[in-house]
């Protein structure tokens, strides 16, 4: 057991923790990251790699995504390792006229907000996607959406942060947080000893709730499970991301027209081609606690959904499948926030299905916040207090 | 032509008692024993290259021989991609080696 | 996909363990037993094995397998080949087994999936013509096709010597059996000293008389280092095998398939000697990296594991009666640790008694049979011609203790 010290201790070596470590180290802060397993061993290696604005509400939501997209393009040049970054845009496809109408409304609102959205008619879809089912009505495109390999991205942030002086402690558990007499952060207790520090960032993803409880704070972050299938290498089916619009229909107060299991498991098509000539097919959304077992029924349901949109997939072997736990919050926005009651305690968690997209902006504003600088975007809407108020109402 | 690699008489195990049948590999007409794995029939005719790596194009053959490693992937007409070390040979089978693929994402076009 | 099939006992793996279990249980009881295997024919790794017994008779796996299959056919056991299992789900009354031929519901489930080989990625190992030692065995002994005219074996261990001998019997020429260069794999296991230590375990089956007596002695007196340094540079002939402990493989060469290997002389601690590199023409290379239990299905089922190096890797926790910590789930054969086929068969008989005991048949009688079967496994292990590791009994005890802890 040893005792050491640091300016900032980050709990969690996922993409959020590593992005925060990178931006802090860049500002000259002395950072230690404590990770119970391997870097990117949590949700950040059990996900897709999309950096999306296409499904975000115009307003704060999409502004944050766009800021993050811009930062990622800068990171391509700043970071030490390549991470399969591409920005081919992404599309949503519609199965009915009703969806096309809703899509048109969505595109209009996004365009008013100044975002590069446009409708795609049946012909455009056909000419880009020769393998797409013939009955697809059309879709819409967001031209700036990009994609990365999330594991490489996390490691690239990690090695660059290390070069800038950050220390990474893997296979080390955080077991407690030490406060001084005034109730401010004084240190982090780990399975390998105490680290003295005045600043702690809780970037523990789906495990951030018990970390917050260590300082008596309740945050409503819950695991929302998702499954993904990996195809074997195959001839190209397409080069950019495709999702189904029907999943957004709930935003328009309409029900999805899908079978019972698809509804129950929250299955919606996410097609993501990778540079290795295979593709990822997702995904599902379920609240089943921390259970990480692959559910074959869900896998079959995702496969059926994928074949509905791309009939050729029937003949393409699946290599493997995996699942991950999205750190869900009730309003689908992350918590990126100082905790005023416990001076020196910060939270950067709860990014649900957008942690890869929002890692760059999260790391940037967290570093600015800790270093007492003005933040790139306002983090007021991301304050953890918003949930406390809600609880108060009940 | 090279001599077949078949062990026609094994001192302890004796002879194989299987029917000779015809099949094609990359269009070439060949003979093998009915029901033996595809990879075995090819090996008997000195054919070891079962596929080209999808990305690098380098030659690959069988590795484990018992279905564990997935190195022996070939295309069989009507069956799609199969493991050549497990899939029994049938009369008239049309088999194609696994091929290098162009990569639409990196933009590599040669195949 | 076919309809959901129903059975009382489903056995995954038609190797010596699975087939023995099926034959034993169905000989005694009216029980629906089904065996499935993804290989086109039943027998598992038994099909490729043969070795010389102490009395110089040959033990031929294919014959043993044929015998077991006949017993099973007679007893009405269904054996389905060419069917892969890819998923398992615990049900209130048994297990749902997901296969490439549809789902199967079973009350009891036995996993007897055997072992797989550890690959050794030496330079050039992806060239066609490079294969695992087990593949060379399967080609020559199961399908009776030579892996090539002239080969080289990389890796010195119990399995590589046993299979090398089988290849020679089949009329295949071997240019050498050597270690991979430790410049590439600087692990303890790849030094000549370690190889000698391994060889001393072959006891009676040791390929040369000096090793047979020398082996035991060396083990006792820790002479491996000395033997390794005395080992003749050009190797020795054992069982007509060109064993070369002071030579290491550097790389495998060829354009579209194996054309040659580059080897070099090494010191007893495995360092390459400058300027000693030479090329040997061969048309196949067999890599022997050792075996590990094939236990993915146990992991899918949710079994806890323990890493036990003497047994080859991660082992699903089970007790001496071959029960796992999960309801109605049993294991037998190499999935419980790497050993020879005769031990796997004894384990198969044991697990059959264990299942019938748990099913509540003739409890008294079965209890005695069960205890006898436990003893029999140990006896077979003790007298086996091929010993995979000297401390297997002790290593197994550690797993059994953990089982008690768990339940
Ligand atoms: C199926 C699926 C698809 C997804 N697709 C996308 C996508 O396309 N685009 C996108 O933007 N997002 C996507 N996501 C979401 C994204 O993966 C997550 O939001 C993101 O990975 C969360 O990162 P994180 O760093 O907060 O959490 P994690 O990566 O889980 O990191 C938290 C770390 O904290 C560590 N930790 C926990 N407790 C302790 C402790 N006590 N001591 C020490 N360390 C501890 C954990 O070991 C873990 O490594 C997807 C998620 C899933 C499940
Ligand atoms: C390549 C190789 C060579 C060997 N050679 C020798 C030797 O020469 N001498 C010696 O003493 N020992 C040898 N062994 C050790 C061997 O494992 C034992 O001798 C013995 O065969 C083990 O018996 P088992 O019944 O446990 O497994 P196996 O004989 O391996 O049988 C297991 C069976 O399960 C099937 N199976 C596995 N997974 C699945 C699945 N998911 N779905 C359906 N079926 C499945 C396999 O196809 C296989 O037929 C060798 C092992 C290997 C891997
Ligand atoms: S050679 Fe390994 S799966 Fe066929």
From TrEMBL, chain A:
Source species, domain of life: Bacteria
Residue ranges constituting the FAD dependent oxidoreductase domain according to the UniProt record: 7-368
InterPro entries linked: FAD-dep_OxRdtase, FAD/NAD-bd_sf
Entry keyword set: Oxidoreductase
GO CC term, one of those recorded: cytoplasm
Name the UniProt record assigns to this protein: Sarcosine oxidase subunit beta
Matching PANTHER family: FAD-DEPENDENT OXIDOREDUCTASE DOMAIN-CONTAINING PROTEIN 1, SARCOSINE DEHYDROGENASE-RELATED
GO molecular-function term, one example from the UniProt record: oxidoreductase activity
Keyword check for Oxidoreductase: yes
Source organism of this protein record: Baia soyae
UniProtKB/TrEMBL annotation, chain B:
Pfam families membership: Fer2_4
Database matches in Gene3D superfamilies: 2Fe-2S iron-sulphur cluster binding domain, sarcosine oxidase, alpha subunit, N-terminal domain (3.10.20.440)
Domain of life: Bacteria
Organism field: Baia soyae
GO MF annotations, alphabetized: iron-sulfur cluster binding; oxidoreductase activity
Keywords for this protein: Oxidoreductase
Protein name as catalogued: Sarcosine oxidase subunit alpha
InterPro entries given in the database record: 2Fe-2S-bd_N (IPR042204), 2Fe-2S_ferredoxin-like_sf (IPR036010)
From TrEMBL, chain C:
Lineage of the organism: Bacteria, Bacillati, Bacillota, Bacilli, Bacillales
Protein name: Sarcosine oxidase subunit alpha
Domain FAD/NAD(P)-binding per the UniProt entry, residue ranges: 8-166, 254-348
An example Gene Ontology molecular-function term: oxidoreductase activity
Source organism, top-level taxon: Bacteria
Keywords: Oxidoreductase
Pfam families for the chain: Pyr_redox_2
């Amino acid at each position: 057991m040893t005792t050491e010290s640091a300016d900032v201790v980050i709990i969690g070596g996922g993409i959020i923790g590593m992005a925060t470590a990178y931006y802090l180290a860049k500002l000259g802060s002395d950072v230690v990251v404590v990770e119970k397993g391997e870097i990117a061993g949590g949700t950040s290696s059990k996900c897709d790699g999309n950096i999306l604005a296409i499904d975000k509400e115009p307003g704060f939501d999409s502004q944050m995504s766009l800021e993050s997209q811009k930062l990622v393009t800068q990171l391509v040049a700043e970071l030490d390792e390549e991470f399969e970054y591409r920005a081919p845009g992404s599309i949503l496809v519609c199965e009915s006229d009703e969806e096309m109408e809703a899509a048109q409304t969505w595109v209009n609102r996004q365009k008013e907000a100044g975002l590069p959205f446009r409708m795609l008619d049946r012909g455009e879809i056909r000419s880009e996607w020769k393998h797409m089912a013939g009955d697809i009505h059309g879709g819409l495109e967001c031209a700036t959406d990009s994609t990365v390999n999330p594991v490489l991205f996390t490691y690239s942030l990690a090695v660059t942060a290390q070069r800038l002086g950050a220390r990474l402690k893997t296979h080390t558990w955080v077991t407690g947080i030490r406060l001084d007499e005034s109730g401010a952060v004084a240190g982090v207790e780990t399975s390998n000893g105490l680290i003295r520090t005045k600043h702690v960032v809780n970037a523990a993803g789906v495990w951030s709730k018990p970390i917050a409880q260590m300082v008596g704070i309740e945050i409503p972050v819950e695991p929302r499970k998702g499954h993904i299938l990996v195809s074997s290498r195959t001839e190209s089916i397409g080069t950019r991301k495709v999702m189904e619009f029907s999943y957004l229909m709930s935003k328009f107060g309409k029900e999805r027209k899908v079978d019972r299991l698809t509804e129950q498991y929250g299955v919606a098509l996410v097609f993501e081609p990778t540079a290795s000539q295979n593709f990822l097919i997702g995904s599902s959304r379920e609240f089943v606690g921390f259970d990480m077992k692959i559910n074959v029924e869900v896998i079959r349901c995702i496969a059926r959904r994928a074949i509905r949109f791309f009939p050729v997939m029937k003949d393409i072997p699946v290599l493997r499948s995996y699942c991950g736990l999205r750190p869900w919050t009730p309003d689908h926005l992350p918590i990126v926030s100082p905790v005023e009651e416990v001076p020196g305690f910060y939270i950067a968690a709860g990014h649900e299905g957008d942690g890869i997209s929002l890692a760059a902006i999260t790391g940037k504003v967290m570093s600015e916040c800790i270093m007492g600088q003005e933040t790139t975007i306002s983090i007021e809407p991301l304050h953890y207090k918003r949930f406390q108020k809600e609880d108060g109402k009940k | 032509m090279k001599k077949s690699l078949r062990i026609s008489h094994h001192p302890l195990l004796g002879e194989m008692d299987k029917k000779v049948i015809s099949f094609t590999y990359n269009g070439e007409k060949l003979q093998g024993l009915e029901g033996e794995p595809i990879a075995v029939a090819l090996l008997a005719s000195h054919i070891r290259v079962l596929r080209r790596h999808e990305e690098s194009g380098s030659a690959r053959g069988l590795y484990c021989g018992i279905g564990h490693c997935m190195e022996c992937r070939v295309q069989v007409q009507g069956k799609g991609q199969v493991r050549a070390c497990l899939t029994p040979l049938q009369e008239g089978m049309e088999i194609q080696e696994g091929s290098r693929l162009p990569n639409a994402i990196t933009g590599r076009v040669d195949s | 996909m076919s309809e959901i099939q129903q059975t009382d006992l489903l056995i995954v793996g038609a190797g010596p363990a699975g087939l023995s279990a099926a034959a034993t249980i169905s000989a005694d009881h009216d029980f629906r037993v089904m065996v499935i295997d993804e290989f086109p024919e039943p027998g598992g790794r038994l099909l490729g094995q043969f070795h010389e017994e102490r009395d110089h008779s040959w033990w031929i796996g294919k014959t043993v397998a044929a015998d077991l299959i006949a017993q099973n056919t007679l007893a009405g056991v269904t054996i389905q080949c060419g069917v892969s299992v890819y998923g398992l789900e615990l049900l209130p009354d048994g297990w749902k087994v997901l296969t490439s031929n549809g789902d199967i519901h079973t009350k009891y489930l036995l996993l007897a999936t055997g072992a797989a080989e550890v690959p050794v990625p030496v330079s050039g190992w992806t060239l066609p013509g490079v294969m695992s030692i087990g593949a060379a065995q399967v080609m020559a002994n199961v399908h009776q096709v030579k892996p090539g005219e002239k080969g080289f074996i990389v890796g010195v261990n119990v399995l590589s010597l046993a299979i090398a001998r089988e290849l020679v019997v089949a009329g295949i020429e071997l240019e050498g059996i050597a270690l991979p260069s430790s410049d590439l794999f600087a692990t303890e296991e790849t030094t000549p000293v370690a190889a000698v230590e391994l060889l001393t375990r072959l006891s009676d089956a040791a390929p040369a008389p000096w090793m047979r007596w020398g082996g035991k002695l060396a083990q006792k007196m820790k002479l491996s280092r000395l033997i390794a340094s005395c080992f003749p540079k050009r190797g020795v002939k054992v069982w007509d095998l060109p064993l070369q402990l002071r030579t290491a493989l550097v790389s495998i060469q060829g354009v579209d398939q194996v054309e040659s290997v580059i080897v070099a002389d090494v010191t007893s601690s495995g360092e390459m000697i400058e300027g000693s590199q030479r090329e040997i023409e061969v048309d196949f290379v067999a890599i022997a990296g050792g075996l590990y239990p094939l236990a993915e299905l146990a992991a899918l089922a949710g079994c806890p594991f323990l890493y036990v190096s003497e047994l080859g890797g991660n082992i699903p926790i089970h007790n001496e009666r071959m029960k796992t910590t999960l309801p109605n789930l049993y294991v037998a054969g190499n999935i419980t640790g790497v050993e020879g086929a005769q031990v796997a068969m004894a384990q198969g008989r044991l697990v059959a008694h264990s299942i019938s005991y748990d099913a509540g048949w003739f409890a008294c009688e079965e209890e005695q049979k069960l205890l006898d079967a436990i003893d029999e496994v140990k006896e077979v292990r003790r007298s086996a011609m091929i010993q995979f590791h000297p401390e297997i009994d002790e290593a197994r005890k550690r797993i059994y203790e953990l089982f008690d802890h768990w339940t």
